[in-house]
Design goal:
Elements lengths: L3 H8 L3 H7 L5 E6 L5 H12 L6 E6 L6 H4 L7 E5 L4 H9 L3 E2 L7 H8 L4 E6 L7 E3 L7 H7 L3 E5 L8 E2 L1 E3 L5 E4 L14 H11 L7 E4 L3 H9 L7 E2 L3 E2 L1 H8 L15 E3 L1 E2 L3 H7 L5 E3 L2 H4 L2 H4 L5 E6 L2 E3 L4 E2 L2 E2 L2 E2 L6 H10 L4 E5 L3 E2 L4 E2 L1 E2 L17 E4 L2 E4 L5 H11 L2 H13 L5
Parallel strand pairs: 1-2, 1-5, 2-3, 3-4, 5-7, 7-10, 8-16, 11-12, 11-17, 13-15, 14-16, 17-22, 18-25, 22-26
Antiparallel strand pairs: 6-9, 18-19, 20-21, 23-24, 26-27
Helix pairs in contact: 2-3, 6-7, 8-9, 9-10, 15-16
Bound molecules: coenzyme A.
The site of coenzyme A has 24 residues, from strand 17.
Length: 435
């Protein structure tokens, strides 16, 4: 066997030495939050701050580390963040006008990476090298393979706390240009607090999910509450974008065993995991979790291969047509599209499948109805009127797919908060929608 340890030692360096290589206008790529390389990126930011280097760009997704280029505008023009999702730290910077975002379907990002950008370096955190010279990209399938294929240089940060994913992306020491070691606990998301309304909504959706279904749960309290409401089910499967705490709970309590899936039977499939140490420990050395590239996992043609595919995602508002905004409050950007539409489409194409978009009926202490005659000016339409399926609030479920505008409006008003139903009915009649 080749001496991979010697190759490792030869490539071992420091974040500061990597930062010395950076030149004007370099483009860096990084992937999802817990797979990002904080030691390298912090050293690069320090170097740029204290030099004449300018025009450096960094592409990121699901940011959790407090990078200076997102935390404040002091690096504007010298080092700029570009987010594929614009949540976490990037959201403030995008709305503050000193970072930019890419509107894109998550599943298309690998293609954009391959066809539209030239990367000077891909920086990624990995688990320690195995005896065959491979590092596991751990919790991250996402678009890392495209970055590895495309980037001129690959810098890895080895962290003993990164779990080793047996069925996920690997990178070999021979493909790597430089290695640094930085052992630290992985970032976690604040635990989601399940309020009474989310639990009510979760229970309503759970009633619609048969034993043997295959589930995708999105980001937020309601998808989490739905997960917890599924604990009494049997033979569920998982094919999802993000692997969550409630999924670990469902596997450990026996509700999920993946036995009824048509593809990847007996395995849970995801494109990334992000949340708690419990998730990270569960994935470590676990052959029953596959962390695969997003252009495969989020392809609606793949998603729909599992029968009874059920997708559950959150949103910010919906209009009478059923146009769903899940990305902005007016012009204030909140998040990217992620895989919402891919799972809406995949679930609707699946035999017996259903897609649920769920939210509490009001925002801001009951002062704003999330069901609206028209979307707020500036609101981004995430799921179109032609794709939408079920909308859920704490007052019930509206089934919009294939239904007329009048029927949709009537059903949506029936699940709006009672305080807003008269006003919504008045607007619908004024527009001649309710005949
Ligand atoms: N008008 C005004 N403000 C609103 C609003 C509305 N219609 N709807 C929500 N808000 C406010 C809330 O009050 C809250 O404000 P706060 O942060 O000051 O408390 C904030 O917007 C977030 O709302 P919340 O209901 O807590 O949303 P969430 O965090 O559960 O979900 C989404 C936010 C919708 C952006 C999230 O689900 C998402 O990222 N969706 C898009 C991508 C996606 O679905 N991916 C799926 C695959 S993982």
């Amino acid at each position: 066997m080749a001496d991979y340890k010697a190759l490792y030692t030869q490539k071992l360096t420091t974040p500061e030495a990597i930062a010395e290589m950076v030149q004007n206008d370099w483009l860096f790529g990084m992937d999802t939050g817990p797979s990002q390389a904080p030691a390298i990126m912090t050293a690069v930011a320090n170097k740029i701050k204290n030099s004449d280097i300018k025009g450096v760009k960094v592409q990121t997704l699901l940011d959790i580390y407090p990078y200076e280029f997102y935390a404040d505008n002091s690096l504007a023009g010298k080092m700029t963040g570009f987010s594929w999702f614009s949540s976490g730290g990037a959201r403030k910077a995008v709305n503050g006008g000193y970072a930019d975002l890419f509107p894109a379907y998550y599943r298309d990002i690998p293609r954009h990476i391959r066809t539209e950008y030239e990367y000077d370096a891909f920086c990624v955190e990995v688990s320690p090298m195995d005896s065959h010279g491979y590092f596991s990209l751990s919790l991250n399938g996402s678009y890392a393979e495209a970055m590895i294929d495309k980037a001129k240089r690959i810098f890895v940060e080895v962290n003993e706390c990164q779990p080793r994913c047996l069925c996920g992306t690997q990178i070999h020491v021979s493909q790597v240009d430089a290695i640094v070691e930085y052992n630290h606990e992985l970032p976690v998301l604040p635990p989601v607090v399940l309020d009474e309304t989310s639990i009510t909504i979760g229970n309503l959706i759970a009633e619609q999910i048969p034993d043997g279904a295959c589930i995708q749960l999105g980001i937020g309290a309601i998808p989490d509450a739905t997960g917890m409401a599924l604990k009494a089910k049997h033979d569920l499967g998982i094919h999802t974008e993000m692997f969550t705490d409630s999924m670990v709970e469902l596997i450990e309590c026996g509700a999920v065993n993946n036995s009824k899936k048509q593809i990847h039977r007996n395995k849970s499939v995801t494109t990334f995991a992000f949340g708690s140490k419990r998730i990270y420990d569960f994935i470590d050395d676990n052959p029953a979790v596959e962390v695969l590239p997003v252009d495969y996992v989020n392809d609606p043609e793949v998603i729909c291969k599992n029968d009874n595919m059920i997708s559950i995602n959150a949103a910010l508002e919906v209009d009478f047509f059923g146009q769903v905004c899940a990305e902005s409050v007016g012009t204030k950007h909140m998040s990217g599209s992620g895989g919402q539409i891919d799972y809406v489409r995949g679930a609707c194409q699946s035999k017996g499948g259903k897609s649920f978009i769920a939210f509490t009926s009001t925002a801001k202490g009951g002062t704003i109805s999330k069901i609206k005659p028209i979307l707020t000016p500036g609101a981004i339409c995430t799921t179109s009127k032609n794709d939408v399926d079920y909308i859920v609030t704490e007052y019930g479920i509206a089934h919009l797919r294939g239904r007329s505008l009048g029927d949709r409006t009537r059903q949506l008003i029936a699940i709006a908060h009672p305080d807003f139903r008269d006003e919504l009915t008045f607007e619908a009649k004024k527009r001649g929608i309710l005949i």
